[in-house]
Amino acid sequence: LEFNIAVKDSIGGWKDNAVVFKQPKACTSLKKFFGEAWTHIMEGVGINNATCPIPVV
Length: 57
Prior knowledge:
elongated; 2 strands; alpha+beta; about 55 residues; about 30% strand; two-stranded antiparallel ribbon; 2 helices
């Protein structure tokens, strides 16, 4: 899982790499980030077994 976010600076240009977030194991990282909401999110997209790795449907 990797986020590389740019922001607008004070003169209207874009500043690259303003926020850089790198985390191995995307599924596990997102599951930990969302906490209890993870199960609800997975059920909402039709995945009833919310384990990592997400099984292929």
